[in-house]
């Protein structure tokens, strides 16, 4: 479409969910905003695609979907913000030691098979990429068969993070950058393979280990001996934070 009509390139965006992100496959979508609908409909290619959407929505037994027939050029759920985001897969293998997350640019639409953290910063990437966060995730989240079914409400919103200083955030950001740089050393591998515990490259494993030590020190300076100690500190901080919120709401 772009080869024959270059001016239509502005209506094409990358479309990515957990599968595409982890396997390195590429998908694309037509993205049309209300103010550009008339212009987009000048293209026969786009008109035909949009008409197919209208036909499918008209046949749906779901009332909400039928109503969307009036705007067949629009997604049913508007998830795209036009901002650089952190992508967190909705479903991940229970065998992975880390949540395999990454940044996507502001020209990417994230599907309903992944979560997005808009304007996500490097220090936050470091925390979610840590072993500590994975331990918390495995302890509190639901499961899809045996795989991890990530949750924005149960896992992400409830994950206890102590008050961070600017210096701590800077140190976390440096560790996050190192992980991302090490990934670039292995572009021949998909992220699914790269984060297979039996196949993870040693330089990436070392970068994650250094990141883990930095995140652990946010919670206590003495090194942890096991994951039970980590969970104990996480739940203790969680209880402290929820108690504080309760006190504020009752005030």
Characterize the structure shown:
The protein is of the alpha+beta class and 251 residues long. It has two domains: 6-70, no CATH class; 85-250, no CATH class. The protein contains eleven helices and nine strands. It has helices at residues 18-23, 37-40, 44-59, 63-67, 122-128, 131-140, 152-156, 166-184, 191-194, 202-219, 227-250, and strands at residues 12-16, 28-30, 85-89, 91-92, 102-104, 108-110, 114-118, 142-144, 147-149. α5 crosses α8 (166-184), α6 packs across α11 (227-250) and α8 runs antiparallel to α10 (202-219). It is globular. 24% of the residues are buried.
List the helices and strands and how they pair.
Blueprint: E1 12-16, H1 18-23, E2 28-30, H2 37-40, H3 44-59, H4 63-67, E3 85-89, E4 91-92, E5 102-104, E6 108-110, E7 114-118, H5 122-128, H6 131-140, E8 142-144, E9 147-149, H7 152-156, H8 166-184, H9 191-194, H10 202-219, H11 227-250
Parallel strand pairs: 1-6
Antiparallel strand pairs: 1-2, 3-5, 3-7, 4-9, 8-9
Helix pairs in contact: 5-8, 6-11, 8-10
End-to-end separation in angstroms reads 60 Å
Low-pLDDT stretches: none
Query: Major sheet, described briefly?
Result: 3 strands, mixed
Mean pLDDT: 93
Q: What is the element string, with H for helices and E for strands?
A: EHEHHHEEEEEHHEEHHHHH
Strand order in the sheet with the most strands: 2-1-6
Strand content: 5-15%
Helix content: 40-55%
Radius of gyration: 21 Å
Total strand segments: 9
Structural class by helix and strand composition: alpha+beta
Q: Helical region count? A: 11
Overall shape: it is globular
Question: What's the number of domains?
Answer: 2
């Amino acid at each position: 479409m772009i080869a024959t009509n270059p001016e239509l390139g502005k209506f094409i965006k990358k479309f990515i969910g957990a599968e595409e992100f982890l396997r390195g496959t590429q998908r694309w979508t037509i993205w049309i905003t209300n103010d550009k609908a008339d212009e987009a409909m000048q293209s026969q290619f786009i008109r035909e695609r949009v008409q197919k959407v209208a036909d499918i929505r008209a046949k749906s037994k779901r009332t909400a979907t039928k109503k969307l027939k009036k705007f067949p050029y629009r997604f049913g759920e508007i998830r795209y913000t036009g901002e650089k985001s952190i992508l967190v897969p909705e479903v991940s293998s229970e065998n992975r030691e880390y949540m395999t997350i990454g940044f996507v640019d502001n020209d990417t639409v994230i599907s309903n098979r992944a979560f997005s953290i808009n304007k996500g910063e490097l220090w936050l990437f470091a925390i979610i990429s840590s072993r500590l966060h994975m331990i918390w995730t495995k302890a509190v989240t639901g499961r899809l068969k045996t795989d991890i079914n990530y949750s924005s409400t149960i896992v992400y919103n409830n994950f206890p993070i102590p008050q961070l200083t600017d210096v701590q955030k800077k140190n976390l950001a440096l560790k996050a950058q190192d992980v991302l740089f090490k990934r670039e050393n292995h572009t021949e591998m998909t992220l699914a393979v790269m984060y297979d515990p039996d196949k993870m490259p040693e330089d990436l494993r070392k970068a994650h280990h250094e990141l883990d030590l930095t995140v652990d020190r946010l919670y206590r300076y003495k090194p942890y001996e096991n994951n039970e100690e980590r969970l104990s500190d996480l739940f203790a901080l969680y209880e402290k934070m929820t108690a504080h919120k309760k006190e504020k709401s009752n005030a």
